[in-house]
From TrEMBL:
One of its GO terms (cellular component) is plasma membrane. GO terms for molecular function: efflux transmembrane transporter activity. It is a lipid-anchor. Belongs to the outer membrane factor (OMF) (TC 1.B.17) family. Coiled coil: none annotated. Its main location: membrane. It comes from Acidisoma cellulosilyticum. It comes from the Bacteria. InterPro entries: MdtP/NodT-like, OMP_efflux. It is found in: Cell membrane. This is Efflux transporter outer membrane subunit. PANTHER family: OUTER MEMBRANE CATION EFFLUX PROTEIN, OUTER MEMBRANE COMPONENT OF MULTIDRUG EFFLUX PUMP-RELATED. Keywords: Lipoprotein, Membrane, Palmitate, Transmembrane, Transmembrane beta strand.
Length: 472
């Protein structure tokens, strides 16, 4: 009866785990519904696909992002950090097993123990070989769950590092798409500038011919030349910005500037979506965003560390043992005459001075409160960034539509002005004004195209997709 009682008590103690158990932190119900700013025909409530960049149906963009995932140096750093954290987790798990040490040795000389044995057997002490071999074992009886909490903390920390890596993949995918989109959009802006340059150059020739006929003045020609020069001057900055975007792309791909993917400069049209941009809802966002998952795992780590610190207030019990032998001849190591062994418990306790463990416990509890606050703020930040991206995208869509209408009207007005100027019905100033309006609105539409692709990518990044397992 006493034996069963003792075994039951030992089982209860072994099952005791101090500290709070992890529970998923609550989020406001309003955070899980549809987005406030999603009432826009250009977006839909459909789930965000894993590889959102594939929605652009641009094989070159797909290939660039996969290259970045494989070669980006920041990702390599994060992968190394993940490997290190997983190794720490495996090390923590190993603490649940008995710790063992095997040792063996051989020395030549005099040993007081051997001399004593020789004297007791009426033999003279002498120099001799002494061989020994020992196997030691120690096992911590995890009475208060400290080792289990250490394993939980290491596991949760590894999961938070994994989430950080996923978040970096989200960022890298977005930055590659942003750089590629910039190259293409700047190519479009340059093409628009070249078309505007051709138009203004043609008009300059018309005005010069009119001057030769006596219908225009040197002043009219000078104004037309000024417009041509202004359009010409807008091209070099576009070329510089485009080449800078290529070098940005090169760094994201883990390449030197000489290895930059200059072939992307053939792209002169920004990637465009063939369907409304899928944004899902708040619940899917909270599940998908790696930074929220990282904050959640950091909270779980902090809670487990409370249990580790709390267990330091209680005794630690270990079972230790050893088995081995010693002999003056190697072949006698296993004989009974030289056998040594032992088995027994050991207890240690930081008591009565427990000020240090209490301070550590207070520190872990404060860290857990901070981790919970950080989680709450991360959720709010994710929702804020998504709503801001949706709002910015919607505003730019409206801006783009108005600019497109203005550009169409400006092109029509220029065609009319050209015909009327040729017929002598309007002045050179009227024609020049129409040219300036057409050039300005065409450039504005191209600039808005660039803003749209950047706004789309910012929205995709805020939604937190792109890290999923199929890409690993």
């Amino acid at each position: 009866m006493k034996r069963r009682l003792a075994l039951g008590l030992l089982a209860c103690l072994s099952a005791c785990t101090l500290g709070p158990d992890y529970k998923p932190p609550a989020v406001p119900p309003s955070a899980t519904g549809g987005f406030v700013s999603a009432a826009n025909p250009a977006v839909s409530a459909d789930p965000l696909p894993d590889g959102w960049w594939k929605l652009y149906q641009d094989p070159r963009l797909d290939a660039l992002i996969l290259q970045a995932f494989a070669a980006n140096d920041d990702i390599r750093v994060a992968e190394a950090n993940l490997a290190a954290s997983r190794a720490l987790f495996e090390g923590a798990r190993a603490l649940q097993l008995p710790q063992t040490t095997a040792s063996a040795g051989a020395v030549y000389g005099r040993d007081v123990t051997v001399d004593t044995v020789l004297e007791l057997t009426d033999r003279e002490p002498q120099d001799t070989w002494l061989f020994d071999a020992t196997f030691d074992m120690a096992y911590e009886v995890d009475l208060f769950g400290q080792v289990r909490r250490e394993v939980e903390a290491a596991r949760d920390n590894a999961q938070s590092v994994d989430a950080v890596l996923d978040g970096l993949r989200v960022t890298i995918a977005a930055e590659v798409a942003r750089a590629y989109g910039s190259v293409c959009a700047l190519g479009e802006e340059r093409a628009v500038a070249e078309r505007s340059l051709a138009i203004t150059a043609d008009q300059l020739r018309i005005v010069q011919a009119s001057e030769d006929a006596g219908a225009s003045t040197d002043f009219d020609v000078a104004r037309s030349k000024t417009l041509v020069a202004q359009v010409q001057a807008s091209i070099p900055p576009l070329d510089g910005a485009r080449r800078a975007a290529v070098f940005e792309l090169s760094a994201l791909l883990g390449k030197t500037p000489t290895e930059a993917p200059f072939n992307v400069e053939s792209c002169v049209t920004p990637p465009r979506l063939a369907a409304p941009l899928p944004v899902g809802d708040g619940a899917a966002l909270l599940r998908r965003r790696p930074d929220i998952r990282a904050a959640d795992r950091k909270l779980a780590t902090a809670l487990a560390e409370i249990g580790v610190a709390k267990a330091d207030l209680f005794p630690k019990v270990s079972l230790t043992g050893f088995y081995g032998g010693a002999a003056t001849q190697f072949n006698l190591l296993g004989s009974n005459s030289g056998l040594t062994w032992g088995l027994g418990p050991a207890i240690s306790w930081t008591f009565p001075n427990i000020a240090g463990p209490l301070a550590k416990l207070a520190q872990t509890r404060a860290s857990a409160r901070g981790a919970l606050a950080s989680f709450d703020q991360t959720v709010l930040t994710a929702l804020k960034e998504t709503e801001q991206a949706l709002t910015t995208y919607e505003a730019e869509l409206a801006h783009h539509a108005a600019l497109a209408d203005a550009a169409a009207d400006a092109s029509h007005a220029l065609a009319l002005a050209q015909a009327q100027f040729t017929a002598g019905q309007i002045s050179n100033l009227d024609l020049l004004t129409s040219e300036q309006t057409q050039v300005t609105t065409a450039a504005a539409v191209a600039s808005s195209d660039a803003a749209l692709i950047q706004d789309q990518i910012a929205l995709f990044k805020a939604l937190g997709g792109g890290w999923q397992a199929e890409l690993r």
